[in-house]
Amino acid sequence: MLTLIKGGVISGVRNTVKATDGAVQAGGVNYNIVIVLEETSVYSGVWTYYFVDGIGLVKELYKDVVIYELLDRTAN
After folding, report:
1. Residue 11 predicted with pLDDT over 90
2. pTM for this structure?
C-alpha cells in the first residue's frame, strides 16, 4: 500500500492483487487458479508473484524477468 503523509510518500510500495483465478506455467507445469500479486516500488520497479493454494510461490518476476521458478515438487 502506498502511504501518504502530508503529501509525501513514506514506503513507496504498492501491492495489488491482479488476479485470484490466474494461470501460469512454472517448471513445465501449467497451474490454474493462481493468485497473482504485483508489487510496485517507486525505487525498484515492478515485482510479480504467482501463488498456488497448497504449494505456495511458484514463480516470481522482476520487470518481466524470471527471478524464481518452482522446477520440481514432491506430492504431499
Report:
1. no
2. 0.81
